[in-house]
Amino acid sequence: MKNFINKIKGFFKRFDLINGWRNGCGSKQGDKYILELRLGKLTVFELDIDFSKHFRITLFNFAISFK
Fold first, then answer.
1. Does an H or E element contain 5, and which?
2. Could you tell me the pTM of the whole model?
3. Looking at per-residue confidence, does 29 or 10 come out higher?
C-alpha cells in the first residue's frame, strides 16, 4: 500500500499546480475588491480595486484606470 501511495505522490509532483494549491490555502484574493452594477451589457458603475496593482472606475462603459 505504501508503494502505491508513493507512486500517486510522484505522479502529482510532476505538475506545477496554480492558484496556490501547493500551500493548501488556495489563491489569495484578499486585497482585490470589485463592486459592479450592470444592466445587461451596460456597466452602470464598476469599482475595481487591487491594492498591489491598479484602481479602476467605470461609469456607463467608460473607464478610468490608475496604476
1. helix 2-13
2. 0.50
3. 10
